[in-house]
Design goal:
Helices cover 36% and strands 18% of the residues. The chain is of the alpha/beta class. About 2% of the residues have low confidence. Bound molecules: ligand TNX. Ligand TNX binds next to loops.
């Protein structure tokens, strides 16, 4: 009797133990994974993570890994400088396979290779190696996502060799904090979720018609008054029924610096956007002299494209912009600065004496491809490009910046499909693909609109749709032109998204689908296989306490 009882316990224990195994089927899928499931290394509490503790960055990543292992499994590891004691070893290494004679020229490693890593599990534990700190962080995320979720005494890590690097250098996500304001804590959560998916560029949409949310110290009224709209339109359309509740909020420069720091610790760069010369009602409300008509201008209480924009002929406009971009550069170290440039109707400029005088002065003529007004916008972009260059930065603009001709160093973010991106790549400009039909996650993810919260309507952007996107558009671009494509970005516009729960629901699991577009090569991608790997990732969403759409179409 007693032995039967013991056998039962033993069997139960065995099946329990065998369930607590790591599984390297993570999202985004690493470039190469060779696993031998017959052998495991067993990870237990009290074991060590070794790293060079003179290196502050490495210590931080080791600390994250320690925290993630405990969060997922309850297993408590120790940080130790002693390699021999440790189960997990994190180390920087010299570039592999570069031992060549001095006379032989070797191409320097690409940015993608510099983000790469190897992760090996064998009888002596886990060895993580990378050329750069960022690679160690990515590897730690992969190990984290491989863990089983749930309290356990030990985890069996099957022997494996993972060699990984991303496909694209720019793997972005936009959050619109102008239409609705999200707190610093929510943005940090957003950044954590990005890091979980291997993203590295947080595009922060800080200003728009419905609110100016970046503190400019030398123009204090800009944020204090330009951030507040008197009311907000109700419902998905523009029925002009309002809630009559004032709405506001802005980020102090200290808030911004905190976000930059938090993101950098997770190897994410923050690309700030000040949208100009359109989408400027927040600023025009405070400085009506910067508009063509002199106003008054309300901070917009409804959505859509506004006719009123910054005056292109008033010299004060450029002074204003340089003040704003100057402070922006002080706060954000990003080598990319986004200047918007989208949806700037030219109705006012066509009628405005100042704009027309400037067009005269600059000698801008319709050349059959670019109207004088569009060229005036290019003139503003050029001035800002020079200004940013003096601070060591490059500008990104939405694809409308093509309309008046691209400035020399402009990077184009293609949103109205891939057309603008293709055109820019053909002109040998750098491009980020963010086509609305594949990348606009403000749109519904499910076919049945009634089964999800309110969204921007008109078309569905499902996980499978996102997953099917090929950013290099090989039908339209030569191999050389394809090299201009820096990467891909998903955009979460928030006209209809007022609360963090809703934002995460819009984001997930669509970011997972996007992450494989950003990280994986096309021959590696398979939607059914992605679906099979997704539930394990969703356990981490649950652990993080973020909302997500439980249905995948
Ligand atoms: C277009 S994308 C916009 C945004 C809106 C979005 C809604 C872009 C450059 N402009 O201002 O929020 O559509 O989907």
């Amino acid at each position: 009797m007693r032995s039967i009882f013991l056998t039962c316990i033993l069997l139960a224990g065995m099946s329990w133990a065998s369930a607590q195994r790591a599984n390297y089927d993570v999202v985004p899928q690493p470039k190469s994974v060779r696993t031998d499931t017959a052998q495991v290394f067993t990870l237990r509490s009290g074991m060590g993570i070794a790293f060079d503790n003179n290196d502050a960055e490495l210590s931080r990543t080791a600390g994250f890994l320690c925290q993630w292992v405990e969060e997922a499994t309850g297993i408590r590891l120790m940080l130790t400088p002693d390699d021999k004691q440790a189960a997990i070893r994190l180390a920087l290494e010299a570039p592999a396979g570069r031992k060549v004679r001095k006379s032989v020229k070797v191409a320097p490693p690409t940015e993608q290779q510099l983000e790469g890593y190897t992760l090996e599990v064998n009888a002596s534990g886990v060895d993580i190696r990378a050329q750069k700190q960022v690679g160690l962080f990515r590897a730690a995320q992969t190990l984290r996502k491989s863990l089983p979720v749930g309290q356990t005494q030990s985890v069996g890590l099957p022997f494996t060799r993972i060699a990984d690097q991303p496909r694209f250098v720019y793997r972005g996500l936009l959050l619109d904090c102008a239409r609705h304001f999200f707190t610093v804590d929510v943005i940090k959560q957003f950044i954590d979720v990005m890091a979980l998916h291997g993203c590295n560029q947080f595009h922060w949409h800080l200003t728009d018609d419905q609110g100016w949310r970046f503190e400019v110290k030398s123009l204090p009224r800009l944020a204090s008054e330009g951030s507040v709209r008197e009311k907000t339109v109700i419902g998905p359309g523009n029925m002009r029924i309002y809630d009559n509740i004032p709405y506001g909020g802005y980020y102090t420069q200290e808030d911004c610096r905190e976000i930059v720091r938090y993101a950098a610790e997770r190897y994410i760069n923050v690309v700030p956007e000040i949208d100009m010369p359109g989408h400027m009602m927040g600023a025009l409300h405070v400085f009506p002299n910067l508009g063509c008509t002199g106003g008054p201008y309300p901070v917009a209480p409804h959505w859509g494209v506004m006719r009123d924009v910054l005056c292109g002929g008033n010299p004060e406009t450029l002074d204003f912009l340089k003040t704003v971009f100057g402070e922006l550069c002080d706060v954000f170290p990003s080598r990319f600065i986004h200047i918007g440039g989208d949806e700037c109707p030219k109705d006012c400029w066509r009628k405005c004496p100042k704009c027309q005088a400037k067009i005269e002065e600059l000698g801008l003529k319709d050349d059959g491809r670019h109207s004088p007004e569009n060229q005036l916008q290019t003139y503003l972009n050029h001035e800002i490009e020079q200004f940013l260059a003096s601070r060591g930065r490059s500008l990104i603009g939405w694809d409308e910046i093509l309309a008046g001709g691209l400035t020399e160093d402009a990077i184009v973010m293609s949103w109205r499909g891939t057309k603008g991106g293709i055109e820019a790549a053909k002109q040998h400009h750098r491009v980020i693909m963010s086509p609305n039909v594949y990348a606009y996650i403000d749109h519904p993810q499910l076919k049945d609109y009634s089964r999800q919260p309110r969204t921007t309507d008109s078309y569905q952007v499902s996980c499978s749709k996102i997953y099917s996107f090929e950013p290099l558009v090989p039908d339209a671009l030569t191999e050389e032109e394809q090299n201009c494509i820096l990467g891909v970005q998903a955009n979460l516009w928030t006209e209809q998204v007022a609360f963090p729960e809703h934002a995460f629901y819009q984001l997930l699991p669509r970011l997972a689908a996007m992450s494989e577009v950003q990280w994986c090569r096309p021959d590696q991608k398979n939607f059914e296989d992605f679906r099979r790997r997704l539930p394990r990732l969703e356990q981490f969403y649950d652990r993080l306490g973020v909302q997500y759409c439980k249905q995948v179409e």
